[in-house]
């Protein structure tokens, strides 16, 4: 089981209570958010699909992220996270979608986008998508990816339980 089992169960239960399905759009986590959710028996009643869009081409083809967004802001950006989340929502039967794009390391970072920088997008039907940024301490690739999964689940749960 995932180290995020309790949080994943809460997300699934919140979706179930609202009668909606969920989708994930993942870059730096490579499907770990979907795995944390689908590790739980019965999750198929709530999880619609997960998009693993590691390359820019996949982000464009599968989620509709525009080349202009990627050219102007890069894959690791607020704008890309928002388009990923909106694209996952539009290309699924989900009522809520979460997207993650970041620099998990050990390489690939830069001065303005260091290792540990992750952008999150959350889109819920009938609402404007929202984005948040986190800078996780560079304690290794696994740490950054696990913190990204935890934060994505937290953000989905907060969106699902907001009044």
From TrEMBL:
Residues that span the membrane, as ranges: none
Gene3D superfamilies reported in the protein's UniProt record: CinA-like
Top-level taxonomic group: Bacteria
A Pfam family the protein falls into: CinA
InterPro entries for this protein: CinA-like_C, CinA_C
SUPFAM superfamilies reported for this sequence: CinA-like (SSF142433)
Sequence ranges assigned to domain CinA C-terminal in this UniProt record: 5-158
UniProt xrefs under NCBIfam families: PncC_domain
Protein name in UniProt: Damage-inducible protein CinA
Organism (species): Aquibium oceanicum
Lineage: Bacteria, Pseudomonadati, Pseudomonadota, Alphaproteobacteria, Hyphomicrobiales
């Amino acid at each position: 089981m995932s180290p995020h089992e309790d949080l994943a169960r809460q997300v699934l239960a919140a979706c179930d209570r609202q009668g909606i399905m969920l989708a994930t759009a993942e870059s730096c986590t490579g499907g770990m958010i979907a795995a944390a959710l689908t590790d739980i028996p019965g999750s198929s009643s709530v999880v619609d699909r997960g998009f693993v869009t590691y390359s820019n081409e996949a982000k464009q083809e599968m989620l509709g992220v525009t080349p202009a967004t990627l050219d102007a802001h890069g894959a690791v950006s607020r704008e890309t996270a928002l388009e990923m989340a909106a694209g996952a929502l539009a290309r699924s039967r989900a009522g809520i979608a979460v997207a993650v794009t970041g620099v998990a390391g050990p390489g690939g970072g830069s001065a303005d986008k260091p290792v540990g920088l992750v952008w999150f997008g959350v889109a819920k039907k009938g609402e404007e998508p929202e984005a948040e940024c986190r800078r996780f301490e560079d304690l290794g690739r696994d740490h950054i990816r696990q913190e990204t999964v935890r934060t994505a689940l937290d953000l989905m749960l907060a969106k699902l339980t907001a009044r």
